[in-house]
Design a protein that fits this description.
Layout (H helix, E strand, L loop, with lengths): L19 E5 L6 H10 L3 E6 L16 E5 L6 H12 L4 E4 L19 H30 L17 E5 L3 H4 L5 H25 L4 E7 L5 H10 L1 H8 L11 H12 L1 H4 L6 E4 L11 H9 L1
Helix pairs in contact: 1-8, 3-5, 6-7
């Protein structure tokens, strides 16, 4: 056994080169950074997002490394994967990121006033769409290792970095009083679906891993615009008051965690866990000072 020294070879690379990664919602404010990170790691990346979202975000001329499929995860995710497989082969790693974001959903002061149609729509996209995405990814892995009609002279290439990351949210841990459907939907995928899938995937492919990433408040362009709209007190309560780091996380910080989880070299023993990327947030602010004053008066 050789002694430890600086001259010993220890590969610190992610080992993601040539991995085929599919990202749903890859044209969004966080998704585009995730895509950029995987491309920088040497991956082939397929992006699935709504029609009309790619032109301003993706370099569609980079056909050697990047493929875009305009689609809706609730309607044509099978076609998206089929298109991806025809371009770069089996999807090794899947990032299930697409969902209806909290910032685009109507909010109400009480669940008493919530529109049941909104509840159903959030569940259709955020739960069912995520389920369909993860299901089709694992079906593709199963097909790759057990093809119905294997070619007699073509050896099956081993798959690398096989896994899936479900993008959850701090809302799946803490809930959202003014938009309970969003919190319930994220909780369903980052807990119930994750725990089921993380036990299922290794039965299909022994080293397959499934994890979730739960971002807190992320310092995107939208967060900055909302700070202007709602004020610094809103930002303080949202991403500073109960956050040990005292700030919103950056999109790059979320993307790097997703990329790390994709690497079997670095995270090959990590499976079935939710990784919070929220600055250590301990929970939401439940009562504002003015609210409590009024409550006590009542």
């Amino acid at each position: 056994m050789s002694k430890i020294s600086a001259s010993n070879h220890f590969d610190m690379g992610l080992g993601l080169e040539g991995t085929h990664v599919l990202v749903t919602g890859g044209c969004g404010l966080i998704g585009k950074i995730v895509v950029q990170t995987f491309l920088a790691a040497g991956c082939h990346v397929t992006v699935v997002d709504l029609p009309g979202t790619a032109e301003a975000v993706l370099d569609l001329e980079d056909k050697d490394h990047l493929h875009f499929f305009p689609g809706d995860i609730t309607k044509n995710i099978d076609a998206a994967f089929t298109s991806a497989e025809s371009k770069f082969g089996t999807v090794h790693f899947c990032v299930a990121l697409a969902s209806l974001d909290l910032s685009v959903l109507p909010q109400s002061d009480s669940i008493c006033d919530m529109d049941p149609a909104v509840w159903q729509r959030v569940f259709d996209v955020n739960i069912n769409g995520t389920f369909l995405t993860c299901q089709r990814w694992l079906q593709g892995i199963r097909r790759a290792v057990s093809p119905p009609e294997p070619h007699p002279t073509t050896p099956q290439r081993p798959l690398r970095n096989v896994g899936c990351v479900i993008i959850g949210s701090e809302s799946g841990t803490f809930g959202v009083r003014t938009q309970p459907a969003y919190g319930a939907g994220k909780s369903a995928v980052q807990h119930g679906l994750l725990l089921a899938l993380s036990k299922d995937a290794p039965r299909i492919y022994p080293s397959a891993r499934v994890n979730a990433v739960a971002p807190g408040a992320v310092n995107t362009e939208r967060m900055k615009a909302e700070t202007v709209q709602y004020g610094e007190q809103w930002r303080y309560e949202e991403c500073e008051a109960t956050v040990p780091l005292g700030r919103a996380v950056e999109p790059e910080e979320v993307a790097r965690v997703v990329c790390w989880l994709a690497s079997e070299r670095w995270a090959g023993g990590v499976c079935g866990v939710v990784v919070p990327v929220d600055g250590g947030k301990t929970g939401p602010v439940v009562w504002g000072r003015e609210e409590l004053v009024e409550r006590r008066k009542g």
